[in-house]
Amino acid sequence: MAATPAESRTLTVGVPWFYSDFMSETPPSDAELLQKLEGRIEELAALCRRLQEDNAKWRARHKALSTEHARLNERARLARARIEEVIGRVAVLTGEKRP
Length: 99
Hints:
- This protein has a domain of 69 residues.
- The chain is built from 2 helices and no strands.
């Protein structure tokens, strides 16, 4: 059975995840805990910056693809209109009625 996120962060019953690096007989000092917390905050800030950059890239990619999609739809519409026009001319030349 897989551990839940809360369980995976607790190595020993009643011991929070941030104590995991300090599993010794003496509890960590406030300075050690603060240093550990600062490191984790820096990691999360770096992750946040990376995700923001990735998000900006994906938004730009989405905009480019949307523009390309609109351009291709317009080309398809124009091609359909030209084909309909040619079919109409052929029908007139052959004396057939269009359905």
